[in-house]
Amino acid sequence: MASVAICPDDPAYDDVTRRPPLVLGGQTLRSITDKVCSIAETPHTPLGWYIGFGVASTFTGILGACILYLFVTGVGVWGNNHPVYWGWPIVNFVFWVGIGHAGTLISAILFLLRQQWRTSINRFAEAMTIFAVVCAGLFPGIHIGRVWVVYWLAPVPNYLAMWPNFRSPLLWDVFAISTYASVSLLFWYLGMVPDLATLRDRAKSPLRKIVYGGAALGWTGSAREWHRYERAYLLLAALATPLVLSVHSVVSFDFAVSQLPGWHTTVFPPYFVAGAIFSGFAMVLTLLVPARAIFKLENLVTIRHLDNMNKILLATSLMVGFAYVTEVFISWYSAAPYEQAAFINRYFGNYWWATWLMVTCNVIIPQTMWFRWARTTPWFMLIVAVCVNIGMWFERFVIIVTSVTRDFLPSSWQNFYPTVIDYLMLAGSFGLFFTLFLLFVRLLPIIAMAEVKAVAAHQAAHGTHDTDAGAADGRPNPTIDQPHVRQAEPI
Amino acid sequence: MYGKPNPSDKASDAPTPSVVGGVIAEFDSDVALVAAARSVKEAGYRTFDCFSPYPIHGIDPAMGVRPTILPWLVLGAGFVGCVVAMALQWYANAFAYPLIVSGKPFFSVPANIPVAFELIVLFAAFTAFLGALALNDLPRFFCQFWSAKKVDFGRSTTDGFFLTVDADNGGFQVDQARQTLLESGAATVDVYFRPPPPPAIPSTLVWGGVIVALLALVPPLLTAKMQFRNKAHPYVHWVLDMDFQPKYEPQAYSPYFIDGQTSRPRPEGVVYRTRERSQGGYAATEMFAGYAPDPNAAPLGGGGILRDEQGLPITEETVAARHYLEGLILAKNDAGLPKRDDAGRLEWIPASSYPIAITDEAMARGQQRFEIYCSACHGLSGDGKGPITLRALELKAPLWSMRAVNDTYVSDQAAGQIFATITHGVVRGGMQIMPGYASQIAPEDRWKIILYLRALQRSQNATLDDVPPERRSVLK
Predict the structure, then answer these.
(1) Which ipTM score applies to this complex?
(2) Domain hosting residue A164, numbered range
(3) CATH number at residue A410
(4) Distances (CA, A) of A381 to A310, A366, B43, B219, B430
(5) Which band of pLDDT confidence, cut at 50, 70 and 90, is reported for residue B7?
(6) In a domain, A490, yes or no
(7) Does residue A487 fall inside a structural domain?
(8) Touching A: B residues 218-277, CB under 8 Å
(9) Mutation test of the interface with chain A: which of B68, B101, B115, B137, choosing the one with the most A Cβ atoms within 10 A?
(10) Which conformational region is residue B194 in: left (phi greater than 0), alpha (psi within -120 to 50 degrees), or beta?
(11) Which of A158, A235, A401, B62 might form a disulfide with B37, Cβ 3.0–4.6 angstroms?
């Protein structure tokens, strides 16, 4: 415990008697504003941004060309064929929609739990959610064959007098994903309105004044506006929390409600939700660690933030690992020969390498996060996060492909062979994701300035032991105040 | 001071608006602002507001801001979302398009929970967002506080803390309000002005807009009208999905065959199978199939010529074909000659006679066909209680009714009329309540079914007298 005195400024150090500071470096309200706004305002776009944008938009173009080719030619351009009709498009869909979960989780659930450390990363994570859901929504949209009748998915009157089947999980999926995309967008935008007003009031050029002025909706920051805004934000968080849990549950119903061995299990909804949060946090880390270094945001996105995220990564990794073990146990315990065959095939069959890659990336490698060094070393956590991204893609591949390649009829057993278009579209979806993301970091406030200012002001007024939050958490206030090694931030 | 708030306006020499809007004061910190809000409220002002770059906790009681109504609106919207979801699912899957899936009920709450949940959240979230905007009077693209020159109101979203007291307050006096604010610890105090009223929109523009808006309604209304026509061909739809297919019609030109025809002649050794063309057909139907008639087949009706009341010829083959294929015979006048109506058309009536030989074999074949095609709905005895009917009644299928075919309603009909019913089905109230069986049952078998149906009708209402005397002992 002597280390309290030795490294009092280490924000990752856990000391129950004081809350670690969430904003470092003696920030003032103006310096926070300058720091965040300058990224969107600087006339000198970093060269790295141009390079990244060039690569990402090239892949977006490739994606567009592949989609055009798909529309003109038909779904035969993919490797989907008997018995694997749900091939890469659905793997990519589940992968992206899973990534889209961390944003709303960080925003909504951590907000409801009064985890103030979320303020520096929530905007980032919400943007990531929106863009991941865009990539996710793309694949079911284009894999239906005749895209020009995609409106048949929606309950709109059509000339066939035909209505969708509301008892099908695939239709629940349409509702869940579109609701999730809409609510995430509202949540993201509502949170951004005060920061857009800041950009508007700082704007110099007429174009920026018009664009940011329109987007800010005339926000002035009056106390009455803040009152309703905070209430609306709390309500949206309360609505988004069950929503985020429902979306991947519904996605898992697509599989769990069918009768296929390897899919037909009740563990799927919690298993999928844990996996979604896991992959989402990994993607946030993948994006945040480089962005934090490039834009020099170390004082706002502190090591403490990264440490907390890595702890959640570790926790969800353990949940996912537990689900893998549960599946295997239940297949043995069920005494159903088809279940058992499906899991023996999954771990030792034609796709054994994909399954073990999944286990290695998702369960074994994240165990390094038990060590404090790993949780506080950005380059290392970046490697782990990328591994988790790869592992989670393979998890969806394993679930979807290994189950259907081994049908009930041995005569229809057939491996899955992706085509060049499959590979290009996966790469292209990453291109689309990063294109949108790079536009976001260049044009919009990437950190929730108003929330960070509120946290900084709170920190300045109450010191860093944060008695209010302690009481809100239900824990007793410290009766003996430790002498503060560090003074409150100047504000 | 129109349009976007613009800090550079302060430097311009635009004419200063003259109507005082109120007093604005800048404070150094959030603590000072909360204290000032409290003293301004205590000084009796009602229309005043505080501006800060982040929400200041504790300022609402200081200002006397009452809790917003927004949560109740959101609750109501969630409830509406639930009702809409349930109504939509009931309408779609239990009413408009009842779809049998594994024998599950058309409307059951558990299957409808996911969609109901999503719509509750969707409605509630949009209400929370739009409600917060509406209650805050947003979007609003004008701000009068920028007209105060001594303070930079733009800092309110960066690091400035402002308090405004509006001239709406009863008994408002600039000097008094300024004094109150200075005593509350304001760093700077200034006066802001009301914007000049916006210029009126020219009436020509208004009426032009109204006319354009009305004209714009015409295409959607016409489209909507087209959707509700009662026509057999497809409604207007923008995506011509499979309306036009690249294919060859019968009797069309084809460059691929020597005879230039798309229809191919019957190859050597193919088994002859009668095809009919009931609408407007006058002869054996090979000609409609596009290949030459079989010269060895006996012509129907013997190939003789009839003459009608005007002495015009009708081939016996035509008459026999219509009887056999459509159940129609020619109406005769008193002289026993075929009649024509005023427009010169021959008059055809349902036949009471049978164009087939009435034998035990025909009756047995008719029974077998009846039990295959008819009994599923009409019942084995023709009482209208087949298994499909029983199932439909059990499911309380709307609009379901089944004709008993052994009662007098059907037995009073001519055989040709029953033949037409089997061939074309029954349409009532614009709905095909019985499908036509022309494509499934050959004409020969339809007549045999009628033979068996007649036997059923007779057996259901029979007395002992109907039984041949030598068989009566069986019943005793």
Answers:
(1) 0.87
(2) 29-466
(3) 1.20.1630.10
(4) 8, 9, 57, 59, 69
(5) very low
(6) no
(7) no
(8) 227, 234-237, 239, 241
(9) B115
(10) beta
(11) B62
What CATH code would you report for B360-463?
1.10.760.10
Of all residues in chain B, what percent carry a pLDDT higher than 70? 84
Cβ <8 Å between A239 and B135: no
Contact B104 A214 (CB under 8 A): no
The CA distances from residue B357 to A94, A275, B298, B369, B451, in Å, are 68, 75, 16, 17, 10
Residue spans of the domains in chain B: they are 1-199, 295-350, 360-463
Which one has a higher pLDDT value, B29 or A469?
B29
Is residue A485, in this structure, part of any structural domain at all? no
A71 touches chain B (CB under 8 A): no
Interface residue B432 vs chain A (CB under 8 A): no
User: Which of A197, A230, A461 is the closest to B55 by Cβ?
Assistant: A230
Sheet holding B161-166, edge to edge: B48-51, B161-166, B20-27, B188-193
For helices B218-227 and B203-216, give the axis angle rounded to 10 degrees. 20
User: What is the spatial distance between Cα A328 and Cα A343, in angstroms, rounded to a whole number?
Assistant: 7
Task: Answer whether B140 touches A (CB < 8 Å).
Answer: yes
Burial B9-32 (b: 16+ CB within 10 A, else e): eeeeeeeeeeeebbbbbbbebbeb
Summarised one tens digit per residue, pLDDT across range B32-76 is 899 999 988 888 888 889 999 999 888 888 888 889 999 999 999
Residue A470 touches chain B, beta carbons under 8 Å:
no
Residue A317 lies in a domain: yes
pTM (2 d.p.): 0.71
Residue A149 forms contact with B (CB below 8 Å): yes
* Cβ burial B368-400 (10 Å sphere, 16+ → b, else e): ebbeebbbebbbeebbbbbebbeebeeeeeeee
Which of helix, strand or coil describes residue B430? Answer: coil
The rounded percent of chain A whose pLDDT value lies above 90 is 46
Put residue B255 in one of left, alpha, beta given phi > 0 → left and psi -120 to 50 → alpha: alpha
Residue pointed to by tokens 């380059």:
A379
CA dihedral B209, B214, B218, B220 (to 10 degrees): 80
Domain count for chain A, please give it.
Answer: 1
Residue range A42-86, pLDDT digits in tens: 888 888 889 999 999 999 999 999 999 998 888 889 988 888 888
How distant is the Cα of A155 from the closest Cα of chain B, in angstroms? 8
A212 min Cα distance to partner chain B (Å)? 10
pLDDT tens-place string over residues B231-266: 666 566 666 666 777 888 888 888 888 888 888 876
> How far apart are the CA of B361 and the nearest CA of chain A, in angstroms?
45
Q: How far apart are CA B404 and CA B441, in angstroms?
A: 20
